[in-house]
Amino acid sequence: MHRGIATFTLDTGQCPKWLFERMVKLGREMARVLIEEYGADEFIRRISDPVWFQSLGTVLAFDWNASGLTTILTAALKEAIRGEERNFGVFICGGKGKTSRKTPEEIQRWGQWIGLPETGTQNLVYNSKMSAKVDSALVQDGFQLYHHSFFFSRNGAWSVVQQGMNASEGTARRYHWYSQSISDLVCEPHTAISSQSIGENVLNMVAAKSTDTRNRSTELVHSGYAPLMKEIQIIRKHSSRLSQMIAMKNNGGEQLTLLNLEDTEFHSHPVITEDFSKSKYLEKILARVTDEKPENYEKLIAMEGVGAKTVRALALVSEVIFGAKPSYEDPARYSFAHGGKDATPYPVDRKTYDKTIEMLLKAVRRAKISPVEKEKVIKRLAYPKRQYTAIDFYAAL
Known about the structure:
Blueprint: E1 6-9, H1 17-38, H2 40-47, H3 50-59, H4 68-80, H5 85-88, E2 90-96, H6 103-113, H7 118-138, E3 139-140, E4 144-153, E5 158-166, E6 171-178, E7 190-193, E8 203-204, H8 211-223, H9 225-250, H10 280-292, H11 297-302, H12 308-320, H13 350-366, H14 371-382, H15 390-396
Antiparallel strand pairs: 1-6, 2-4, 3-8, 4-5, 5-6, 6-7
């Protein structure tokens, strides 16, 4: 399975009623067959696979390259299994906009109805909240989350599908998580992060390369409020000078000797564009976290009020003062639209595509839908098996 984040054009408008009703009807049959054949836990795992998720959406007849596929597919699946959740053993919570904020409440309600232990239910709620916090605060890629769906099984397997928008670029980006693939919620937790466009200077605090920065951030919090604010005041005082000195260094000027960075070369740095003016809210949050002293970085991030600005402040102090440089590489590594049989920019994973098509074909053949509709879906699935290019694959669907 690929790791990555999916990027799509940002849609406007609504899904036509006739199309949504069709997606619900076919989605119910697809879910029923797939769960009967492979089990609820496997269905949850497949949701976290970007190729499978995208394929299911296009099989249900939505535009393959539209951001609306994410929101409409999850809404259609949620409606499709309504009233059958206990029979299927699958539960879908959250959705788009205001509905996403109801996710914890929905998880708790389902946990009570099916008799999950309270600790199990609270663990699901925690993972839902943390996945949203991580993708909004630790992956600072310019995409604002507006959709969050949490899928889980009776056995406790879960996956997250959430999407962010970049309004200025008119694009959306999708993030996939799967419980069984995660060993650390704040270090390489995604099963799917891919994009057609790569951002520059993206603060990626979930990268393995950012481990030292995460550790140093925790140490800074443990050092106490006064020592931490002293370091931040130094950066506030020298941020404009740092920008000038970087420019001089890049133009062949004097050696950079700011603070404790005598042996460190900076060619560019986000501190140039960071606003280090006084922020009472940031200082209030830092006062609270230094008082509580969370034992590790995950617990630090889980604290209420800790967001992107707090993460950024601690990361910059860690790097500029102590040399613990985080990753500024966009985690996007996989694109739906550009893989090809000529291996440009990477080879299509034929095994994954074949398995996905085979699974969906099997579900369609067993689905209780009209022969005419069944034939149309099978034709859409048959074509890409002969092509093996990502563009042809999704265009055909």
